[in-house]
Amino acid sequence: MERDPDPDAAHDAAYLHPVIRRYAFGKVVATHHVNDDLESEWHKPEYFDPALAWFSEQLTPHMEMA
Questions:
Q1: At 16, is the pLDDT very low, low, confident or very high (cuts 50, 70, 90)?
Q2: Which of 4, 44, 62, 65 fits 9 for a cystine, CB–CB 3.0-4.6 Å?
Q3: pLDDT tens digit string along 43-63?
Q4: DSSP 3-state assignment of 49?
Q5: Considering only CA atoms, which of 32, 37, 24, 31 is closest in space to residue 51?
Q6: Cβ partners under 8 Å of residue 64, min gap 6
Q7: Going by C-beta distance under 8 Å and a sequence separation of 6 or more, which residues neighbour residue 31?
Q8: Cα(first)–Cα(last) distance of the chain, in Å?
């Protein structure tokens, strides 16, 4: 199986990989799939940067449109 290194394609991965989920009132409201790394070097920019962007987005207050 060929591995797609694109962080935006991690959700399509058939292999075991970390998944971060955000819950609100018992329901999943956001999910981030992290690409695999056989050496578990999660500090590398190709893993860290997309996760940081996801956490930043999740922690930024958004105005609800009425």
A1: confident
A2: 4
A3: 889 888 999 999 999 998 876
A4: helix
A5: 32
A6: none
A7: 11, 19, 20, 21, 22
A8: 46
